[in-house]
Amino acid sequence: MNLVVLQNGLDNISFAILLITLLLYWVGAAFPNLPYLSVLGTAGMAIANLSIAALLGARWIEAGYFPISNLYESLFFLTWGLTTIHLIAEQMSRSRLVGVVTSPVAMGIAAFATLKLPAQMRVAEPLVPALKSNWLMMHVSVMMLSYATLMVGSLLAIAFLILTRGQEIELSGSSLGTRISRNHQKPVSKIINYAPEILAESHPKGLTTNGNSTTAVLEFVKTDNLESATLLSPQRLTLVETIDNISYRIIGLGFPLLTIGIISGAVWANEAWGSYWSWDPKETWALITWLVFAAYLHARITRGWQGRKPAILAATGFVVVWVCYLGVNLLGKGLHSYGWFF
């Protein structure tokens, strides 16, 4: 009974911490001159992560099996995965923007699990015979971790699209080689060497001197018989490249997890139902999810795509992951359905 009370307290505490963390990140983004808000946001994510870990641990002790057998448990496991991957991505990028896009999703999932699910779905019940297998921990936990990882990578891709909205951008591994076009025109960022005294008159700031010449990053916009130049922001370009790179790396981590999860699920299905693949709605959407992110990685690695095109593909993957994880389970009819709505 004490464990049940502890769980009820921890899920509400986790939700409250994530809500506060969301506010910290968003206020910090609105007032960048307050850097301590970002530190508090990171601390809030870490505390929420530990609270959810304690919740799942108490659930494990009470039920006697790995707590990932129903929607309530899987939602909190997904939230724990999101906060874990968030902390990794934030450490890699050193940017509060990671928390701006991940904290609303983590808070929303915790709120849904805590406030929206029926009471009977939050109660730990004995496992059905089909779930009494060592594959439960192997398959479901890896799939949930892959969902969390791919979601964070996709959210960063969405942030990249927002930062570069209205522009066609191709990253070449260096912010100085970034090509940008606005309003369907074809402006191009170039490295141009001028004498220092010429550039100092029109662009006294943001210039770097190298020997007898000064390097400036200029954006040339073609208009009617007019070519004008404006200095690009190196900080913004650096942020854009960082977000794109971290998104790619995080998705590159989530894709092998998804592959392992699908393979382990096929093996478990063969043991439980005598078939590796039965085209259950969940299996079909897992395959669709795999294909979407396989296409993203193929475009990045083999085709050399960078910038908005692969980011759009990754953003699409965010929706596909949610359909695979929650939409099929709640709305579809199959071996993996929770049967809440139908």
Automatic annotation (TrEMBL):
This is Cytochrome c biogenesis protein CcsA. It is found in: Cellular thylakoid membrane; Membrane. Keywords: Cytochrome c-type biogenesis, Membrane, Thylakoid, Transmembrane, Transmembrane helix. May interact with Ccs1. GO terms for biological process: cytochrome complex assembly. Residues 69-336 form the Cytochrome c assembly protein domain. Pfam families: Cytochrom_C_asm.
